[in-house]
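Hi all, long-time lurker, first post. I run a small reading group and we've been trying to get comfortable going from sequence to structure in the token notation. Rather than ask abstract questions, I figured I'd post a concrete chain and ask someone more experienced to write out its structure so we can walk through it together at our next meeting. Sequence below, copied exactly:
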Amino acid sequence: MEGSPLGFDINQFEEQIKAVDEVCEVHDLHVWSPDIGRKAMSVHIFTNSCRRGYVLRKVTEICRAYGIYHSTIQIETTQDKEHQNYIDCEHQMH
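-- Answer (accepted) --
Happy to help. Here is the structure in token form:
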């Protein structure tokens, strides 16, 4: 049953997320239907800002506008990439 929602424009959705102030990068974006009539989403977002709560709220608002009420949003700052313990998710497992 899980699969991409019919008629869902993921490119448009991603562009709206990227247009949020403070968003620098979007990756690992996945949208699926766990069952008929419901959508779920997960995404990683990088920001230059310390306003993670602002970014989270704005992206959640976009999700709701698209009928997504189950969302997992991982927000990191670009400074996180410079930390010695940073775990890079650039791999082919997605």
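A couple of things your group might point at:
The two ends are 19 Å apart (CA to CA).
The chain has one domain: 10-79.
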